[in-house]
Structures
1.
Amino acid sequence: MASLRCPTCGHLFETDYTPAMPFCSERCRQIDLGQWLDEEHALPVDIEKHIEEQANRQFDDEDSPE
């Protein structure tokens, strides 16, 4: 059996006894989901690169025959 810390509450729990891995409970899983949906968590994004890719994609779509 392995022990882990819940990323939401920090509680130490046994991985074999939770249906909500990697969280200690379904409640902590739902809290984490809410944080992602409220944009409290986010993946790092290079905004300048993203804007450039979007601009290039628009030009490519306009040039392609339908």
2.
Amino acid sequence: MTTIQKTYRIDEDLQQKAEQYFSEMGLNPTVAITMFFKRVVDEKRMPFVPEVISERVDYSMESKERLSELLSKIPVKSISDISETERKELLDGWDL
């Protein structure tokens, strides 16, 4: 097997964060990228479904706990089962 050296452009912050996670998993970027490429070749598709995410929000643990508490109080199986007014009251103060 012949190996090559290839250059790709990537956001520096993304690269640093990814390398941190790779390190925590005992990987280096070369191994991680090779794993990704092998999965694409083996499956003949992306190993995840690409989607547009308009904005990522990393809520604090306190916010996640508050949301979990609020959700546990919903007396219905689906939020679509309650009125728009009830939904607005339930989610008041949340910028979702």
3.
Amino acid sequence: MTAALPLPAVDLGEVRPCLEGAIPAIMATTAADGTPNVAYISQVYYVDEGHVALSFQFFNKTRQNLLVNPRSTLLVLNPLNAVFYRLHLRYLRTEDAGPVFESMKAQLAGIASHTGMADVFRLRGSDIHEVIEVERLPQEPLPEALPPPPPRPNFLAVLRRGSARLSAARSLGAALDATLDTLEQDLAVRHAMVLISDAASQRLYTVASRGYDTSGVGSEIALGDGVIGVAARECTPVRIMHMTSAYLYSSAMRSSLGDAQPQSTDIPYPGLPEPHSQLAVPLQSAGRVVGVLFVESPLDMQFSFEDEDLLVALGGQLGAAIDLMQEAEAPCTEDEVNATTPVPAVAAGPVLQVRHYRSNDSVFINNAYLIKGVAGAILWKLLRHSQQGRSEFTNRELRLDSSLRLPEVADNLEARLLLLHRRLAEQCPQLRIHKTGRGCFRFEAQGPVELEDIAA
């Protein structure tokens, strides 16, 4: 009798399509006395080429066996070509915090809600396993050939085109648009947004979006809230492939404004009402998170690990560009800072009633909320100087103004000015900001303005 040939060993990278959660994995463990146990595993997470993480949700027989015998075997299936793989594992430790745990927690929320068990599934920890060996099992002939998967773009070519677009950008707005163009034109991603981190408030605010009924520019997400907030807080990509309810964003008021200010300052979040696939990638520069690149789809299984890898690479370049766009202007003289430039005659028209609340620098125009925080303080400064006949301003002047309360490190002034420019263009086109050169801009009021400053 001829001895059976050993099964071919493969690297873990080939198995990554099996770890998307579409088909549960099967795990075999043994008790101290050798009694075997087989169970389905909700989630298998790719950590690196030598490790996977399994979800720890219940203290069941599988868990008991791992604590006394760390060796196990895992059977996974590639849903695209029906190939089985057998992973031989060794349990190392359990993590209940950190990037792997938070990413698995966000992904598990999608799996749980998709199966109607969001109230039952709760991640208690991420069991880290060393992958000792991976085997590709012989494939049984199928009665009918599986339909070929839809063609995928050449990701290296996409990255090259995206890098070229970014390198040609001369402003922060152009860099954001270049990134969204790459997603839309080269990856057919229809819904995407970029958010910038505000370290002082521990929030992220939307500065650009694509594919939504409203842009949502200025909408805020708290650090740790949803896949976007988790990606920023843990500095790790977060990808879910099914409908999720546990991480939907709330439209509740984010701050109490007091009796003197009853209007809401909550800009509607532009996300899909029922997302089935979501991917959030932190934008990093010099070892810190400067923002998040976020994509989503109304369809299941839309973003693979390859999409994640591409967005991480593209996001790294965008993160560096965001930092570089915080311009280091040439020193200005006192005369330039205090210059009064003739302003064109104000056109006749309805008066803009502008109300400013000092408590949080929120600005309302004709009783409609526009902006708050540092961007609101900047707008109020521009409006006051505009009424004194000034129209030309510099970024350096804003940085020197302590009343604006800009952070001393990573103030993201360019991003705040871009946010203000886009909010004005959408909500109040009578007020305009025009970039006129490196580190300088013009502010114009195309109509009469009345200002009201409220101390409360």
4.
Amino acid sequence: MEKAKISANLRENEKYLRERLENCSDILIRPMKLGDHHKVDCLMVYIEVAVSNMMLDDSAIGKMINHFWEISPDQIQEFVRNNSLGIADVKKLKDMEEAISALLTGNAVFFMDGYDKAMKISSKGYPGMGISQAETEKVLRGSKEGFSDSVKSNTALVRKRLRDTRLKVEEYYVGVRSHTLVQVLYMDDLVHEELLTEVKERLEKFEIDGILDSGMLEQLTEDTWYSPFPQYQTTERPDRTVQEILNGKVAVLCDNSPEALILPGNFNSFMESSEDWYHRFEMASFLLLLRYLAVLMTTILPGLYLAVIRFHTQVLPTNLILSFAEAREGVPFSSVVELIFLELSFELIREAGVRIPGSLGNAIGIVGGLVIGQAAVEANLVSPIVVMIVALTELGSLVVPSEEFASAFRLLKYGFLILGGYLGIYGMALGAYVTVGHLAGLLSFGVPYLGVANGDGVWRLPFRMRKMRPLYARKEQRIRLKERNRKEKSQ
């Protein structure tokens, strides 16, 4: 289909726009006469809320219109061709598709009679929430800034921390109807060309009506779509995004989404918090080890409990076994049903706490858990030890920094629970074998999921010893930190 050209006849352009924008009451088409004695017919098209008042003196559009009122038609033509006022972000558009696209992005589009091009003039854009604190990745030390819904603001937050022209930002419009702006950020001298090429190919290989959040991009472009484990690392923190870009990774920002997608992802990166780089290595190592133990506890503790009390009671001391038996006295359900019932109850409380707005959600999560647990024990529906097991399991899932990563283990927990409850320790071993085998075969943009990069294992190296970048970066740029010699210091 051939694109409609912008005509030098303003009436033809206006007719086309009014037909194309019919019943779009939020888009304003404003004819005007400018120049000395108002001899030049012009047209301004913009979205009512997205573009500020044209007559304001402090806006780019207002300055341009006010200037046009005072000059002759010939000078207006000269301005349009040369942008003699030097207004920021003014771009010439050659056809109507470009003009419509610029309009729907939140800019004003200016047409003038006798000129066969249009001018895109940027304004305040669509309304947004602005920059706010990071909510899901809270830290004690480090920046409190979080991404917003505006992709342009998010890119600015990254550029604020990485002031280097080697940081490249490439734009793509994804979605046949939504035309969602997606930006790919990377360090030109650090990223592997193969990785960058594959990212671009995956963004361009599908066609969809609309992309409303980065989560839709993630599901469309990941390697193994059926895996519960995320293959993109997601973060709402600009400082974390910059750190991963400096490691040679690629960040993908999606308009209307306050999350950055970082790729490739690996197991250890999901276990890290941004403040691990800011803490001393002893504490960072301790916290990282604690998170790994929490993941194990979340996944296998319920199943291990069932395996022991149903099949392998000999591994526990006699007094402990008698205590468990006494606690379960009077409970009408089997241990498997009892544990599944309480796990699902806690999942319901957790989901209710997320959906209820404000501080009431936190109260529901805490009070609801206490009340339901206590009531279930007093009614002899569950035993006290099961309440403790479920509480430890839920606490373990909350320790993992990435909620999406923790959700995978929350799902696996039910598989291990069934295997441990009906096959004992052999079922647990089978579940561990299948899980580790799946993780070992999982790839994120060609990078092994269980791969360990330099200094990124369970033990965190001291900061001054982390001299090498991970394997994601180019080989010739592998050195990240080095000491200056005396000559360099003196200079």
